[in-house]
Design a protein that fits this description.
It contains 5 helices and 25 strands. By secondary structure, it is mainly beta. It folds into 2 domains: 206 residues, Sandwich (Jelly Rolls), CATH 2.60.120; 100 residues, Jelly Rolls (Sandwich). The strands form 5 sheets. It has a 7-stranded mixed β-sheet with strand order 1-23-20-25-18-16-17. A 7-stranded mixed β-sheet has the order 3-2-4-11-6-9-15. A 5-stranded antiparallel β-sheet has the order 8-7-10-5-12.
Length: 321
Amino acid sequence: MTPADMEARIVRYGDLHPCKTAFIDAHTPGSDQKENFTIIGGGVSESPDQHVHISIPHGFNIGAAGQPPKCRNSLHSHRTAEVFFVLKGRWRFFWGRWGDAGEVVLEEGDIFNIPTGIFRGFENIGDDYGMIMAILGGDDAGGGVIWAPQVIEDAADHGLVLSEDGKLYDTKQGQALPDGVKPMPLLTDDELKAYPEPTTSDVIPHYVARYWDMVALADKTPAKVIGAEAMLRDKPGFEVTLMTRGSATDAMHAHDRPSVLMPVTGHWRVTWDGGSATLAPGDTMSVPDNLMHSVVPSMTGDAALYHIVGTTDPAGPTWQG
């Protein structure tokens, strides 16, 4: 694998292509300044303007959301896993039919494996532009986004209409639903009853892992963060581990499916037979299956990196084993 081949599998933070019209709330006040990034896989964007950096199937998707202070992502749900870790800033996540069932504040490095089947939203409560990185279960990320009814209604008041097949149309630009295509139906009261309202105390112990707790656990060996026997016990179709300077090793190894490296702090050198590359926080690297490689910090100071690899478990509702 040549350095040029591998560089094509690295998405640098500074090269990310934002989409400001990715979702139905793109014109809704309070949500109209957010940026969506699709890094690996097709993602769940509803806009044809969304740029996909790497389309190679991994069994999961990698994306990101960037938002200025006080900008909010509206209440929605997914059929497969949605995992976020904070790269920059301070974020409040909230959930429930109206967003008032529970909430948690995440700091840089913290990770949240949001339970499937609940409405969730998030906002940047920091003082500067913030960025959260996302892992979505399945190659098709569960087939799209399920919006709380009020989000669709609010969007219509600001010119955006979602078709029944999940495509976005902007009436402010003269667009309209094609003949024979119906708008996305609102969830009925009976359908809404299937969406649980877990409390904060129900969610945080089982779905949130704090950065410094993970760093402490990863002092000698990588910390298993999400998986069947991990801190956050789940089988979402992928596993997540956190590696630090203390648990990094220059031993060459490989995986039988593509894996992803996402630095949180520090700079990391990835070496393989044929070359090497250095990753910085915010960079995302797709490592080919069966490629022998090593990953170690390349500079002094704090260094932590998330590693994601797919599993044979089906991408679906949060595992309750």
